[in-house]
Known about the structure:
Main location: membrane
Strand order of the largest sheet: 3-2-1-6-5-4
Transmembrane segments: 13-36, 284-306
CATH topology of the domain at 425-570: Heat Shock Protein 90
Radius of gyration: 63 Å
Subcellular location: Cell membrane
Largest sheet: 6 strands, antiparallel
Number of helices: 15
Coiled coil: 356-383
Keywords: ATP-binding, Cell membrane, Coiled coil, Kinase, Membrane, Nucleotide-binding, Phosphoprotein, Transferase, Transmembrane, Transmembrane helix, Two-component regulatory system
Amino acid sequence: MKRKGKIDWKVKLVFSILCGTILVIGLLFGITYGYFVRKLTLNNEKIVHMTFEEAEKDLKVMMGNAEDQLNRFSNNALAWEFSANNFSSTVQQSIVIKKIIQNFDEMISANTDVYGFAILNGDGRTAVSTAEKKSRTGETKISDSMQSFLRECKKNYPYVNWRAGNEIEISDESQLCTLTNRPVLLGVKALGEADGSWEDSYLLVALDEEDVQKSYGQAVYNGSEAVLVNGERKIISATGKEFLGTVYEPEEENQNIIHDISYNGWTLINMIPKKNYLREAKDIRNFGIILGILASLGMIVVAIGWSRKYTGPIQSLMEQMESVGKEQLDIVKPKKAGLPELDNLNEEFYSTVQKLKSYIRRLQDVEQEKAKEELLALQYQINPHFLYNSLNSIRWMALMTNNTKIADSLVTLSKVIMPILRNPAFTWKLKDEIEFLKNYTEMMQIRYGNYMEYHVDCKPCLQEEVFPRFILQPVIENCFVHGGSTTEVREIFIRIRKTENENFFIEVQNTGVRLDGCKIAEINQAMQKPGKDGSHIGLSNIYKRLKLLYGEKGNVWMESDSGGVFVYIAF
């Protein structure tokens, strides 16, 4: 009977199998999913870094070509003439500026990456030309941020300083607005090393930001955005225009791949949305979840099938063991409904319990018989010496009257009676049994005459073996009582030996009697179930005692052929 609130062990088994399956699938899936995500992440980094390395080279070439053009023009007399501002007339000034604009246009045509060129004097004089054929000349009001940047350029002479166009404060009225009216990278080179920035002139080159971002734009995929960040983490170029001018802040939902550029302290960053490149991983995750659910359902089906073939027989065995534990041995024979091994286990347990029941019954019968034997022994112990002394008195009286035959008979009778009265045990040594049979046979020969010859065949090595008491006496008695003619000499052969299994096997042969098969069968059946008339009680007594003492190993049966009647005893 199941306890209330206690989970059935079969449910626990199914639950544990299910949990184990889910755990294994989850572990394998987790490792696979993590490995796949890691591979995607590393693959992204590898591709982006390879692309950024090429972009770094392309951007360096682009900036180098623009710097070369500035360096070549810095050696042009027109640039120094403009910077000196020593014109004899406004006409001469206009001619010089026009020639400068023509040179700028030629330089722009020679380098498609360049958006425009400009020359700026410290006092504000400006000449600008762009790829859109927009040239302007005039005075430029230099802002404080522009003045600061120009001082940096003088400190870095003769090298070119690069800034994003939106980093320099240039008003819409300024002549330079034409050069920076769109996102550009602005390179500035000082023409000389005058003490004050207002005393010198500066050459400016603008790289179109769209052309710049093309150099690293190939790294953009899966919805990512690539940006170029300066040393102050400010975005100076980006594939998305909304990022320009903002400060770069990494976001958790992106895989931020950073590639440091070897010049200007700049950094290329590719921001790949995780939700995009993990879309395939999510498909794998969803597939894994579905696979896990299907595997769990499959395990439940398998577990239910196993519960019929596996847990069913085990449950039956547990119930039987519980009954046996409560000393309830009347268990039902199990049905074959599971695995053959478990069914055999159930049958073996059932067979063992049946043997145990049989043993207990035999033990109870033995105990009852023992109690009776003890009672009889107590009765026999009342005064065995009284009977023995009485027989001796009668013997002496017979001797005094010269009746030696009666005296000898009394001696033999005393030898037969004394072992019965003195020792109530169930067993003794085989030599004692043989000695008793010898005295008993002599007594029976006195009673029935000397027509019965008695022979014992037993090896000396068996004489000391433990042997059940008086087990052969009823058989010998039957030989005399049912022995046939009293005028012909008959023989009794007792052959005692041991089998290979160390069991006793005894053959008693009476040569004076012949019985047909029906009679033999009747006697064999009667000794197992003695009749109320007391027939065959001697053989029944032997059969019962052997069963009580030795169980299934004890047996008695009769046979008959031309050699007489044979009684076989085995135990």
